[in-house]
């Protein structure tokens, strides 16, 4: 577990078992608020949280404003993967999503040095992830009724 502060957000990186009950509640509440209420019916509890590292960003008042999970290699994909990337609606447009991803990528690089990172990105966010170094692989597909793309960062495309 580790925490650092920057830009008014305190970051915490920990395994699922290290989340206390309040931190877990906050994480699930934020994810439900966005993934279930905003984006439609969605089963968030997919069984992968227990095999993931969780990055949480809290403001100075302790409110969870952003989170993501990084799943260990072999649990979902051959590579480590980042998913459940979410920022609170009231902080969108502030750059916190980009800061969250940069922090998550730095943590993945430290946790799994030299390994590429895979995401299943909402297709509408392809440019956002491309700006962070991800490249699309394959065609778009539907996941929970939303167009997604496989994207990878850190692996050169085959010639």
Q: How does the SSE layout of this entry go?
A:
Elements: E1 2-6, E2 9-15, H1 21-38, E3 52-58, E4 64-71, E5 81-87, H2 96-111, E6 117-122, H3 126-131, E7 135-143, E8 146-153
Parallel strand pairs: 5-6
Antiparallel strand pairs: 1-2, 2-3, 3-4, 4-5, 6-8, 7-8
Q: Can you put this structure into words, describing what you see?
A:
The protein has 159 residues and is α+β, with helices and mostly antiparallel strands. The protein has one domain (2-115): Gcn5-related N-acetyltransferase (GNAT) (Aminopeptidase, 3-Layer(aba) Sandwich). The chain has helices at residues 21-38, 96-111, 126-131; strands at 2-6, 9-15, 52-58, 64-71, 81-87, 117-122, 135-143, 146-153. The chain has an eight-stranded mixed β-sheet, sandwiched between helices. Helix 2 links the parallel strand 5 (81-87) and strand 6. The longest helix has 18 residues, at 21-38. Residues 1-6 have low confidence and may be disordered.
**What integer value in Å does the Rg equal?**
15 Å
Give the CATH architecture: 3-Layer(aba) Sandwich
User: Which residue ranges are poorly predicted, with pLDDT under 50 across at least 5 consecutive positions?
Assistant: 1-6
- Residues in β-strands, percent: 35-45%
Spatial order of the strands forming the largest sheet: 1-2-3-4-5-6-8-7
Note the gap between the termini: 40 Å
**Which structural category fits the helices and strands?**
alpha+beta
At the first level of CATH, the class is Alpha Beta
Sheet bearing the most strands, described? 8 strands, mixed
Separate helix tally: 3
One letter per element, helices H and strands E, the order comes to EEHEEEHEHEE
Oligomer: single chain
* Beta strands, count: 8
Global shape: globular
CATH homologous superfamily heading: Gcn5-related N-acetyltransferase (GNAT)
CATH third-tier fold name: Aminopeptidase
Number of domains: 1
| Mean pLDDT rating | 90
């Amino acid at each position: 577990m580790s925490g650092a502060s920057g830009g008014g957000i305190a970051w915490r990186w920990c395994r699922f078992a290290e989340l206390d009950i309040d931190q877990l509640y906050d994480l699930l509440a934020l994810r439900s608020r966005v993934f279930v209420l905003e984006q439609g019916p969605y089963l968030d509890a997919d069984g992968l949280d227990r095999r993931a590292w969780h990055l949480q960003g809290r403001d100075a008042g302790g409110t969870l404003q952003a989170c993501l999970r990084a799943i260990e290699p072999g649990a979902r994909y051959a590579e480590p993967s980042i998913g459940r990337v979410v920022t609170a609606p009231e902080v969108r447009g502030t750059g916190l999503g980009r800061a969250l991803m940069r922090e998550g990528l730095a943590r993945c690089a430290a946790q799994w040095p030299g390994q590429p990172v895979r995401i299943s990105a909402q297709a509408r966010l392809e440019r956002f992830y491309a700006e962070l170094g991800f490249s699309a692989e394959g065609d778009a597909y539907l996941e929970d009724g939303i167009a997604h793309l496989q994207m990878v960062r850190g692996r050169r495309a085959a010639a």
